[in-house]
Write a structure and sequence with these properties.
- By secondary structure, the protein is α/β, with parallel strands linked by helices.
- It has a domain of 99 residues: ProC C-terminal domain-like fold (Orthogonal Bundle).
- It is 49% helix and 17% strand.
- The chain has 11 helices and 9 strands.
- A 5-stranded mixed β-sheet has the order 5-6-7-8-9, sandwiched between helices. A two-stranded antiparallel ribbon has the order 1-2.
- The longest helix has 28 residues.
- It starts with a strand and ends with a helix.
- One of its GO terms (molecular function) is pyrroline-5-carboxylate reductase activity.
- This is Pyrroline-5-carboxylate reductase.
Length: 267
């Protein structure tokens, strides 16, 4: 529930979360023990109850489970009139509208208020990059609320829905691909007799520092050229990666993820 907006955004009065099992409920309550006076944790059997008093409803289930959740008696009916924020991967705002209306015609005077968003795991430390887009008819007030919500856990960017799938997988998947690369670098250290914990921070912090040079104005290709001095170690390593087709492998992986994202609303 929200209290009236201030200059800095809405004040969150209370949060209600639903989870799948009693063990998950206990884990969430333990995590937020200090804030339980403002948080209610229920199990999925009480989804409708959780929605009834809410101003904003987050849909955060796995996309494959959406049909099961929306089939719960009273679920989609209770959602109508609420501001819906979906972070279901690959699910378009049109699909959200279809799920809520259940095949009934849309009321043009009171359109579904929905935002589709994709944050990443760095939200845990308030360093996320979140992409979001609103459905046609979503009010400016609700769009501002969505932007404010996601800015609390990092940077938030509104983008057209037509670009959402490729951009979302870049935000959601690129981190895991880069982590795979870092893991490979650490394997090399182990192969040379250095313990992984001894160099993990060196590699990670070095990568973070280099990545920060890009938004500061340096193009990745230019940076790579600056580092790879003639006859040096870096150019030899880069040539090995090119020989192995690593650059095209990253491209192919992201394109495959984007195609999967595009297909999820129809599956």
């Amino acid at each position: 529930m929200l209290e009236p907006r201030s200059d800095n955004g809405p004040h969150v009065k209370h949060l209600t979360a639903t989870v799948g099992t009693e063990s998950s409920k206990q884990r969430v309550e333990e995590t937020f023990d200090a804030s339980l006076h403002r948080i209610t944790v229920l199990t999925k059997q009480e989804n409708v109850r959780a929605i009834q008093d809410a101003n904003i409803v987050f849909l955060a289930m796995k996309p494959i489970k959406r049909a099961e959740v929306f089939a719960e008696p009273g679920f989609k009916e209770t959602l109508r009139g609420k501001f819906i924020v979906s972070i279901m991967a690959g699910i378009t705002t049109k699909e959200v509208e279809r799920l809520v209306l259940g095949g009934e015609p849309s009321d043009s005077e009171t359109p579904i208020q929905a935002v589709r968003a994709m944050p990443n795991m760095a939200a845990r430390i308030r360093e996320a990059v979140t992409l979001w887009t609103g459905s046609i008819g979503t009010t400016k007030r609700n769009l501002k609320i969505a932007s404010w919500i996601f800015s609390q856990v990092g940077e938030a960017y509104e983008i057209p829905e037509g670009s959402f799938d490729i951009c979302a997988v870049l935000v959601g998947c690129a981190g895991s691909l880069l982590l795979l690369a870092i893991d490979g670098l650490l394997d090399a250290a182990v192969a040379e007799g250095v313990r992984r914990p001894e160099v993990q921070n060196l590699v990670v912090n070095s990568a973070i520092g280099m990545m920060k040079l890009v938004p500061a104005g340096d193009h990745p290709g230019v940076l790579r050229e600056k580092i790879a001095s003639p006859g040096g170690c870096s150019i030899r390593a880069l040539l090995e990666l090119e020989k192995l087709g690593v650059r095209s492998a990253f491209t192919t992986a992201i394109l495959a993820a984007a195609e999967k994202s595009k297909s999820m609303s129809s599956s």
